[in-house]
Amino acid sequence: MKRLAPSALAAALALVPVAAAQQGGFVWDAAAAEHLLNRAGFGARPAEIEAAVAMGREAFVEHLLTGGTGRGEPYYASDHMRGAGLSMLRMDEVDTQSKKELRRLRRVRDGRQLRDFAAYWIERMLSGEDPLREKLTLFWHSHFATSQRDVKNSFEMIRQNELLHEHALASFEDLVRSIARDPAMLEYLDNDDNRKEHPNENFARELMELFTLGEGNYTEEDVKEAARAFTGWTDGKSSFRFKENNHDEGEKVVLGVTGNLDGDDVIDILLDREACGLHVASKLITYFEGVEPDPDRAGFYGEFFAANDYDVELLLRRLFNDPAFYRDEVVGTRIAGPVDFVVGTARRLGIRAPARLLNACIGILGQKLFEPPSVKGWDEGEAWINTSSLMHRGNLAGMLIGAIAIDDILAAGDHEVAMEIGAGMMAPEKIEPPAESVSMSEASADSPEAADAAADEVAPQDGSMMAAAPPARPRPRLGDFRPLKDARAMEWEPRLNLTARIHRLGAEKDGEIVRALVDELFAIEIDADTRKYLREILAAERKAAGIKNGKLLGHPDESEPILRKLAHVALSLPEAQLH
Amino acid sequence: MKQRSKNGLDRRRFLAAGLSAVGGAALMPRLSYASRLARADAPATLVLVQLSGGNDGLSTVVPYGDDLYAENRRSTRLADEVLRLDDYRGLHPNLRGLHGRFQDGKLAIVEGVGYPNPNRSHFKSFEIWHTAHRLGRASGEGWVGKTCEAAFGDEADARRVVHIGGSVPYSLYSTKHAPSSFSVPAGYRWVGNEDDVVAYDERKEGPADGSQRSSLDYLRGVLRDARESSAAIRAAAARYHPAVEYPADSFAHDLRAAAALIQGEIGSRVISVELGGFDTHSGQRGRHDGLMSRLDGALSAFLADLEASEVGRRTLVLVFSEFGRRVAENASNGTDHGTAGPMFVAGAAVRGGLYGEHPSLAELDRGDLIHTTDFRSVYATAIETCFGIEHEEALGAKYPLLELV
To answer: Do A414 and B181 touch (CB under 8 A)?
Structure first.
């Protein structure tokens, strides 16, 4: 079923904003270009900013929207959990003990593949070849949040990511219809269990609350009725399947529309609601601007979005050419998420760190890719920063620029000791969980990211109803830092040469060095007090090394650790968390 | 024949006026609280245990004596194995430690806790629980933040409100009394540049012109709180000696760290921890059983640990979830989002027993339980007990108190 044709309003709306933008009279300069690159991509390198300025705003926006190279080399994912990837793992020919071992191997491969794909994705972000599409893929990953913890199938998770990537800039309508048929989503929100005898409301509810309308724009009755419309929508062998026998053919009433509705009819009904355009457009604007649009602006964009067939590209063309996108309230005020912070820092500084290491850092800072905390995805903004994550941002940035070692971080938290103790926790024999209740440890015992959770699962799962949890030594909470242990095994060392970089920028004296370093490191302008504070640290370190002001860069053996230390402090500051 | 009624009114310690939260029940006399607060052993620390995802109340405090329970539940049904509280209700069989506490008169169970016009969205319902307001975030800061504002005014202390674990719940959200949070106490520090970072001037005053707080102001506030809490929390953890052995999972670890802060007396007045995984839409039985044993193992150890010290005995523990689950099971051997559920209240000062009223399985609202006690009554009781202030100053409205302390 096709949605209603857009009204004539669409054309009118499409014309108004451009005129408004020209009247705005705002300047397209390096600051504006950097702002756009920070928000529509993952931080900007100086050459990228120059090129964007030279191109002019509208042409550059056009380049962002349509000039990307996509994913470049595509990723080949194999289905470890079933199908071809399993040819050597024939389950019917082996004894029970071997089956367990084979299952474990499957999970190991599955976890490894998803981590590998995450690294591939991060490399695409780092490349800057199609930044907006990758940024939107990340947005949709949070909007249509789906977690490997529940799906337990890297093949389906990767397929979903490719789906989001493909539709990232196209029609939101297509995206919703595709996601409602996406195997990972069907499993994550239990629609594969949604049958007419006992409808499972999970997907129908989140479809309304999170994906389309927003909370408060439907009733509980609508949820129940919509769930009936999606009965029989399930998956088999990692593809969508409609099981007619499980589908409820009865009459349903959703948001006042009566009929023998199916899932697509419900999606039609939702897309026709004013709340849908408003909800999704506002969320996109908030993501890119960092502040919620006021009601007038939200209303305008919501109407614009819906009237233009929910075309994401049109919406963003309008937004990135809107003077309001470049207003003071927006520029330099958004709290960078972990991906923004880690990938952005790596890009600005040209740190050639392995993507797997960056992925580990991003996870520690609260944004484990493919494991959003809930179906609501990640909360943006201030929610990223608490006392702990602020400290860890500084620590991990210090590690990435070589100011401190991975071991320094692990030792500070006694994490190394924790891991030795924790290693023993992973081994115990696990009794098979009841059918339908595959435990987390079953699925991801090998995933470092999930290892702590897996260890947690050991006690309840092997205990079933009877056994008390086995006595164990109290152990520190490892989880989040475990990936650093892997990273340490890579024996990676930063190849950063801050001395040469600052020297190339013509800086000599302390004040000039700080200015140059700040330009390189930060996405925003900083005030005189913070500049002075950094200058004092630099001066103290320089004097301790017995070097005169203006001569530091001539002593690279001394200057490099000093500059790294200075950069480490800078990246630990509040200012470094903004873009 | 088994009983079908919500029985046992005589067993419940109701306030004279009754606690049907639907009507405006009379407030209990303030005098008893005032006199209790004067005592040196009055609770001083509040520990909030959040069960995220919507804990199935009917599988936690099980109305095994109700025929309607058996009719509605198949795969999740618990019968003879429940740990009996009386002829009508029993605790989940894995809640052995808590059952022992109940029998010793040290665990209060408040039944049928919820709020009017229940919202079945995890997120909205948590907002309501976290703000103690039907509007959720739109009403302002978290209820702990509002409580600190009422109890301590402008006098902020970064160690007062602490979350242990991952993401900080909105209940602790406050501009003046923002929480500190950590996962591993020893790792709660800046590595390699601590001296320099603490010298950063975070400009405590904020914007001079009274304009809205910017994200930079927020970040500077967090830096200040991190600086002011880091050393104290690490020191408390280093000094701490648990009186009991804790289980090995991370939830137990978090409660163990909470005990360290309490024993360390670093001024922590509200400590929050979280146990997730309760959103059991499918294959509920095995998952929920596991969660119950984790809850019981960690919480029992924690409570025993607290009992061993004087400061520990001055702790009040609240266990809550954003909602219970639907009475009838779904097709996936699971349950969908519901409404009311039980809360546990524990601590040396608590008078154990059943409070409130078990919600009826016969009179449902569109398949869901109708709450019998407003969760804000439990908050109100905790606020008055732990902070010695009138709860309406924090919650903005009056709620009947429970006489469970």
So the answer is: no
Does residue A449 share a domain with residue A431?
yes
Q: Spell out which residues of chain B touch residue A234, defining contact as CB-CB under 8 Å.
A: none
Looking at the fold, whether A306 and A361 belong to one and the same domain comes out as: no
Q: In this complex, which of A375, A387, A537 lies closest to B229 when CB atoms are compared?
A: A387
Could you tell me if A502 and A446 lie in one domain?
A: no
With CA atoms as reference, report the closest residue to A198 among B71, B282, B62, B60. B282
Please indicate if any CB of chain A lies within 8 Å of the CB of B254. yes
**Interior angle at CA A286, CA A141 and CA B124, nearest 5:** 75
- DSSP annotation of B365 reads B
Distance from CA of A287 to the nearest CA of B (A): 15
Tell me how crowded residue B243 is: count the other CB atoms within 10 A of its CB. Answer: 14
Task: Assign residue A550 a region (left: φ > 0; alpha: ψ between -120 and 50; beta: otherwise).
Answer: left
Query: pLDDT tens per residue, chain B (405 residues)?
Result: 344 444 344 334 333 333 433 333 334 444 444 445 556 678 899 999 999 999 999 999 999 999 999 999 999 999 999 999 999 999 999 999 999 999 999 999 999 999 999 999 898 899 999 999 998 988 889 999 999 999 999 999 999 999 998 889 999 999 889 999 998 898 899 999 999 999 998 776 655 555 678 999 999 999 999 999 999 999 999 999 999 999 989 899 999 999 999 999 999 999 999 999 999 999 999 999 999 999 999 999 999 999 999 999 999 999 999 999 999 999 889 999 999 999 999 999 999 999 999 999 999 999 999 999 999 999 999 999 999 999 999 999 999 999 999
Q: In this structure, what CATH number is given to the domain that contains residue B121? A: 3.40.720
Cβ(A287)–Cβ(A380) below 8 Å: yes
Burial track A360-370 (b if 16+ CB lie within 10 A, e otherwise): bbbbbbbbbbb
- CA–CA separation, A526 and A520 (whole Å): 12
b/e per residue A333-352 (b: at least 16 CB within 10 A): bbbbbbbbbbbbbbbbbebe
Instruction: Transcribe A481-536 into DSSP letters.
Output: GHHHHHHHHTT------HHHHHHHTT--SHHHHHHHHHHHH-SS---HHHHHHHHH
The two tokens of residue A138 are 């990340």
Total of domains in chain B = 1
Q: State whether A371 and A482 are in the same domain.
A: yes
* Chain B hits for A457, Cβ within 8 Å: 290
Whether B61 is in a domain gets the answer: yes
Q: What is d(CA A177, CA A233) in angstroms, rounded to the nearest whole number? A: 12
Q: Do A398 and B193 touch (CB under 8 A)?
A: yes
This prediction's pTM: 0.83
Nearest to B342 by CA among B371, B382, B363, B384: B371
CA atoms within 13 A on the CB side of A102: 17
Is B133 within a domain? yes
Q: Give me the domain span that covers residue A309.
A: 9-68+274-326
Residue A37 domain flag: yes
Residue B279: give the domain boundaries: 9-191+211-395
Q: Do residues B124 and B168 touch, judged by C-beta distance below 8 A?
A: no
Question: Measured between beta carbons, which residues in chain B are less than 8 angstroms from residue A464?
Answer: 286, 289
Q: Is residue A420 in some structural domain?
A: yes
Q: Are residues A508 and A446 in the same domain?
A: no
**Helix A30-40 × helix A274-289 angle, to 10°:** 120
Q: What is the CA radius of gyration of chain B?
A: 21
ipTM score here?
0.85
Question: DSSP for A186-229?
Answer: HHHTTGGG--SSS---HHHHHIIIIIIS-TTSS-HHHHHHHHHH
Residues 6+ apart with CB under 8 A from B6: B88, B357, B358, B359, B360
| Nearest 10 degrees: Cα torsion A25, A29, A34, A36 | 30
Residue B197 lies in a domain: no
Instruction: State whether B183 and A194 contact (CB < 8 Å).
Output: no
Specify whether A317 is located in the same domain as A352.
no
